[in-house]
Amino acid sequence: MSPSHTVDAVVLDIEGTTSATGFVVDVLYPYSRARFAELLTERSAEPAVARAIAQVRELTGVPDADAATIEKALNAWLDEDRKATPLKTLQGIVWSEGFARGDLVSHFYDDVVRALRAWHTAGLRLYVYSSGSVSAQRAWFTHSPQGDLMPLVSGLYDTENAGPKQEPASYRRIAEATGTAPDRLLFLSDRPGELDAAREAGWRTVGIRRAGEPYYEQGVGDHAQAGTFDEITVSRSTT
Q1: Are the C-beta atoms of 131 and 158 separated by less than 8 Å?
Q2: Are 140 and 14 in contact (CB under 8 A)?
Q3: Phi, psi angles (nearest 5°) of residue 28
Q4: 3-state secondary structure 88-99
C-alpha cells in the first residue's frame, strides 16, 4: 500500500532521496577536493572559512594545524563520507561558486520535481534538511536541470542550524523553527537512522528506497517506504 499522509509540511533529505548519491560522490566531491587548497591558503581570512578552519583544528585536536594539515583532514573525511560540519561548510562555499559559474548543475530524480511542484501547488510547505550546508542546498535547488526550484522551498536546515541528522533533538528544533506540530511534519529520507530520529521526535516518516542507492539493500526498517515520490500521497491538513 502506498504511504498516505495529511500534513502541513514535507521535509526532504537530498542524497539518495531527491537526488542520486552517485552524482554527489562522483561529481561534487572531486570538484571540492580539487579546490580545498586554494580556499584554505588564499581565503583563510574570510569569516566562514576562518570559522571552518577553527572547527577542523578543534575536531582534529591540532590547534596549530596549517593549511596542508587541514586539507589532509578534509580529504580523509571526504573519503569516509563523514558528515563533519566544517567539511560541509567548505564544500558549500566551493559548490555554490561552481554552480554560480555554470561549472555545476545539480541532479534530481524526475519524480521528485513533479511531486514537489504538485505539493507546493496544493499548499504544502517544503523544507530541506541535509548534511550539506545551507549554502550548498540553496545552490543545489537554484541550479537544477529543471530550472530554479528555490521558490518551492520555505526553508533550509543543516547540521549547523539544526544539529546532527540522527538525533531527535534536531527534528524538534526544526519543528519549533517552522512553527509546525511534529505530527504535521513528514520526513522523507533513505537512511533508517534519520527516520528513527524523526519518528522519535513525533514526526511522520517515509523511507525512500531507490534501486542502486547505497541504503537500498539495508532498507528502512519498519518505516513506511516508497520507491519514488509518485508512490506517496500527501495532502494538506485542514485543521
Answers
A1: yes
A2: yes
A3: -75, -40
A4: HHHHHHHHHHHH
3-state secondary structure the chain: CCCEEEECEEEECCECCCECHHHHHHHHHHHHHCCHHHHHHHCCCCHHHHHHHHHHHHHHCCCCCCHHHHHHHHHHHHHHCCCCHHHHHHHHHHHHHHHHHCCCCCCCCHHHHHHHHHHHHCCCEEEEECCCCHHHHHHHHHCECCECCHHHCCEEECCCCCCCCCCHHHHHHHHHHHCCCHHHEEEEECCHHHHHHHHHCCCEEEEECCCCCCCCCCCCCCCCEECCHHHCEEEECCC
**Other residues' Cβ atoms within 10 Å of the Cβ of residue 145:** 10
CA distances from 19 to 67, 83, 137 (A): 32, 17, 12
CB 193 within 8 A of CB 176: no
Report the DSSP beta bridge partners of residue 185.
9
Q: Reading across the β-sheet that carries 225-226, which strands appear in turn?
A: 155-157, 125-129, 9-12, 185-189, 204-208, 225-226
Using a 10 angstrom Cβ sphere, with 0-12 exposed, 13-18 middle and 19 or more buried, the burial of residue 198 is buried
- What are the per-10-residue average pLDDT scores of the chain (239 residues)? 84 97 93 96 96 97 96 96 92 93 95 97 97 93 96 97 97 98 97 98 98 94 96 84
> Of 95, 71, 111, which Cα lies nearest the Cα of 231?
111
pTM: 0.89
Contact 230, 177 (CB under 8 A): no
